[in-house]
Predict the 3D structure of the following.
Amino acid sequence: MTQRKSRFVCLIMLMILACSSQGILALENQYLYGYVEIGEATTLVLINPHDLSAPAFRYSYPLPPEWHLGRSRTTANPYTKDIWVAAELNRGPSEYMIQIANITTGFTKEFKLKSSDSRGEAFRWSSDGDKLAMIAGIDDIQADLYVYSLSEDTLVNLSKDNHMQINLSWSADNSKVATVSVVCEPAGTCEKQYSGLIDVYDIKSQARIYQLDLSSYTVSGNSACDLLFSQDAIAFTSYCYDQNIGYAMLPSDVYVWNLEANRVDQVTDFGETALRTKSGLYAIYDYAWVDAESLLVGADYHFINFDPQDGHQLLDYDLNGETQVISKELGAGFSLNPVTNEIILRTRSPEFIITPELNNPPIQSLITQSSTLQEITKSITFSDIKVLDNIASLIWSPDGNVAYGLVLNKPGDYPVPTGDVIFFDAATHETLSLTVTSDKEGLQIIPVGWVPAIPAK
């Protein structure tokens, strides 16, 4: 397919939000898409994705004097009635703090960080909307795992150790939170790493209840990333640490830690193959829990000195330790609807090759109509494929009605979001594009994701 199908497309200029009547998704969506504009003023902009012709909701962002919103580590809470945003702020090159702001009421809570080396590494809202897990150096130069409760206005340091925390994930029932920590020195910089751990903390008791020493398993390297918690299992990728390239760690394989069985299962074997054959490997993985016991894994891989050199795999793993290859034509890049378990499948053009210079290339993506996991096991045809160029993975609204994907810059460049957005309608499979532009130089666009709809006055 060489032509792009785009039946309903609206181009929207930043200060003039207008499009034809065709630009209205047939949905009763309960969520708005939000982003922050940083220019002469800092403004939170909320867009109704099923009525792009409607005026945008605009709020002045509650920044303290002389403080600025950082470009990364900014996320909205999609699970509350009010609009809550957690963000990292800076004042100059060396002062940082984390701000939790209720945009609806104007309430803010700030936590200053000990140094620039202890900047916030991650924010994750619990799915009940009450708690924010974050990694930051609030009490010490070394970043720890904290949980802030909106209802109780309390901050708890769960880890309280001298490890470097680098990732987080909530369990499905929000009773536990998992993090990756690395034993290292000196504090704050971690120039030397000794071993990686996955720690699981119980929120009620504020105690660590599980710990996995990654060096005890066949994980290439001493750390892990991209934690994804179900109820009793954690999926993660292992990373190869290359002393010559510092912290540019590359993903090698996907593993699942079964907490109840105290067992680690290896789902893919690309990293193992690379180590065994002494071949270079560049791999991209996506995975999602279909239910409490089934994990869908997509992989795109490129070997440097091993055949077959390039390929894709879509796999189904269950907690019994069994893995089934569903497809060798599809791989990384799918998005799982959190309500219906329907899946938007993405693949790349046949000539797609992963290269060291571009390990997540924004090459043309093919999006099929949504299919259930059972239907994926049958033969898949691409007769109704919609071609969307240069988009990041689609992120579903919590109600499963619509997903958004950030538009990336041109193929061949490093994949950086432009600020433009593609919306995907789960009911009609139609797409709408939102183009965010401005005549003002230096305007930055920071996506914050889904926020709850604003109650009618």
The radius of gyration is 22 Å.
